[in-house]
Amino acid sequence: MMRSLRFAGFALVAAILGAAAVVVAFARDDGPSPTTRATIAIHYSKFSQGGITVPAGVPVTFTLANQDPIGHEWIIGDEAVHARHRTGTEPYHDEIPTEISLRAYETKTTTIVFDKAGDYVYICHLPGHEEYGMKGVVHVVGD
């Protein structure tokens, strides 16, 4: 008798979980996720992603993971932004979503909406890092 009650209990739990999975599946079929995610690791003073493609007009959450024992920065923008940062007048960034400083072994996230299609370059402007090749491109497609 206990064995059949236990089996009935497991069957009920399995049925409930199966129904929940169906609800989740239907919820996910409503369309694309409202936020696109991208992970960029930094290792040996190199970005793991040299190029990323994202849609215009959609929030993109970047996870930036510094795996190095030294600090880095992740600055994304047009040539005017990079020209300003090449002078080295801003030692630390933490208030603008497109300008992130990362201490050794630190991980941060930032969310950006790219309004226009185009290519947006990201660079670490710490001394010598750009010259070493620490840069990449976000290709924004769509409207």
Residues in β-strands, percent: 35-45%
Secondary structure: helix percent: 25-40%
The CATH architecture of the largest domain can be named as: Sandwich
Residue ranges: pLDDT <50 for 5 or more in a row? 1-33
Task: Describe the global form.
Answer: globular
- In DSSP terms (H or I, runs of 4 or more residues), the helix count works out at 3
CATH topology of the largest domain: Immunoglobulin-like
Query: Total domains, how many?
Result: 2
Strands ordered across the widest β-sheet: 3-9-8-5-6
Counted beta strands: 9
In CATH terms, the superfamily of the largest domain is Cupredoxins -  blue copper proteins
How is the biggest beta sheet arranged? 5 strands, mixed
Return the structural class: alpha+beta
Element string (H = helix, E = strand): HEEEEEHEEEHE
The CATH class of the largest domain: Mainly Beta
Radius of gyration: 22 Å
Instruction: Give the N-terminus to C-terminus distance in angstroms.
Output: 65 Å
Outline the secondary-structure elements.
Elements: H1 2-28, E1 36-43, E2 46-47, E3 51-55, E4 59-66, E5 72-77, H2 79-86, E6 99-102, E7 107-113, E8 118-123, H3 129-132, E9 135-141
Parallel strand pairs: 1-4, 3-9
Antiparallel strand pairs: 1-2, 4-7, 5-6, 5-8, 8-9
What does this structure look like?
It contains three helices and nine strands, in the order αβββββαβββαβ. It has 143 residues and is α+β, with helices and mostly antiparallel strands. The strands form two sheets. It has a five-stranded mixed β-sheet with strand order 3-9-8-5-6, covered by helices on one side.
